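Q: How do we represent a protein-ligand complex in a form that can be generated token by token?
A: Start from the inputs.
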Amino acid sequence: MSMPDTESDFLRRVRPSDWKNPTPRNPYDLIIVGGGPAGLTAAELAARDGRRVALIERDRLGGNSLNSGSIPSKAIIQAARVLAFLRDEEDFGAAAFERPRIDFAAVMARMRRIRSRVAEYHSIDRLCAQGIDVFLCDARFDGPNTLSAGDSQLSFKKAIVATGARPERSDLPGLEQVGYLTSDTIFELTELPKRLGVIGGGPLGCELAQAFCRLGSQVTIVQNDPKFLPHEDRDAAELLSLSLSRDGVITRLNTAVVGAHSERGAKCLDTTSADVKLSIEVDEILLSIGRVPNVENMGLSAAGIEFDTARGIDVDEFLQTTNVDVYAAGDVCQSDQFTNVAESSARLAVHNAFGGRTERQGHWTIPWCTYCDPEIAHVGMHVREARQQSIPVKSFIVMLQDVDRAITDGLQDGFVKIHVREGTDQILGATIVATRAGELINEMSVIMSAGIGMRRLAGILHTYPAQSDAIRLAALAYLNDQPPA
Ligand SMILES: Cc1cc2nc3c(=O)[nH]c(=O)nc-3n(C[C@H](O)[C@H](O)[C@H](O)COP(=O)(O)OP(=O)(O)OC[C@H]3O[C@@H](n4cnc5c(N)ncnc54)[C@H](O)[C@@H]3O)c2cc1C
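Then emit the structure tokens for the protein with flavin-adenine dinucleotide bound:
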């Protein structure tokens, strides 16, 4: 398949330089602020229903996910995986290969081609073809049913705020002065940093630490918690630690960065761990300590929309804000900051805006994944959440080293763990650690959404040999644990 290669193809799709905002067709049935996954989903859905729709985006269409999130990170992670695979090729009897030479510019060029290709689905041409008026400028509410988009005054019957989130900054002494990267800027690098210091061991920090290490950077990741991915299953986080170390990432857990300074042309991260002070010399710093919602400087108060700068826009279970005509969707109001949640919440917001508040948020089965190698994916409850709610829980685990297809493929790092309400076969949640856990977890989502219990699951045929058979084997472990009838 031929792919458009140039940055100009990409920009033509997401922010053409010669774009002229249309003449407003007030009042709009729906105005959407923000052209990320939430905003685009809402716009297309409402347009399909025959509504008069305007979408306002201040930067590039596609939002964080396309421009500096899921797509570029996964493209780089896949390149890093291939290189790591070639590194281990002797295990597969392919010792004839020479050690791969890493061409960082080529890795980044591939990422840009992929971004451009995916951008076709979010392109301005596509939106216009659906009759959506696209304004590329800042949006600012100036009343309950009006807002300004650049020089234009727009009015609406309903609006959806989908302005997303941005990387959290830090007031660590010296950090601003030495300079640092965030997920907004790391994908613009043209040279591989020889030494990269990553502050923060959450999903984004871990994914990028491993990928950049595999691409050839010497990476140190500093996490002030005793484990990476603090919200995930302990066994999963421990496997991740091992995997990062095996790749050569220098891991500093229980360690706080307390400041930064420059020395001999390098950037130094000042850290403390217990009483030990250590300065880590690097060439670039990636700050990855969380994301904050975009709620400032957009006149939310003028429209009567209440918000909190840390939590985001206040919404009820129907995603309605404190302005009855305005809904919110995506990262700007959701604690689960994922593309799938952004899109689903947008669908719900459109439905409730025009369908009279009939669909509640709250009972979604949300799968997510951290795309390290192995991947760590989860759906439903963790054991600690079940215990907090006094739900008796029992877990059934299958290690991948006992799964035939994982053995044949040499992909034995990981496990499938299914949590069951004790005394029943009801599945409460599952954690999967595997090379493609992000794919495997979707089977668990379907099973849970369909209300299938462990008994039925144990009888569902899977292809043989398949890694997903580990899911069925966990259900068999449940059956074997039952007292004889
Ligand atoms: C490095 C990284 C990797 C990620 N990987 C994954 C992953 O693998 N899987 C996953 O599910 N999620 C991932 N995410 C999260 C995912 O990108 C977000 O959850 C998703 O983009 C949220 O969509 P959204 O539409 O709510 O917001 P955004 O994508 O942030 O879009 C909001 C848009 O609103 C615009 N905007 C803001 N203010 C205004 C204004 N005043 N006027 C006009 N426009 C405005 C912004 O420019 C932006 O384009 C990742 C994030 C990062 C940073």
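Residues 33-39, 56-59, 63-65, 69-70, 73, 138-139, 162-165, 183, 204, 294, 298, 330-331, 337-340, 342, 371 surround flavin-adenine dinucleotide (CB under 6 Å). Residues 70-87 form the longest helix (18 residues).
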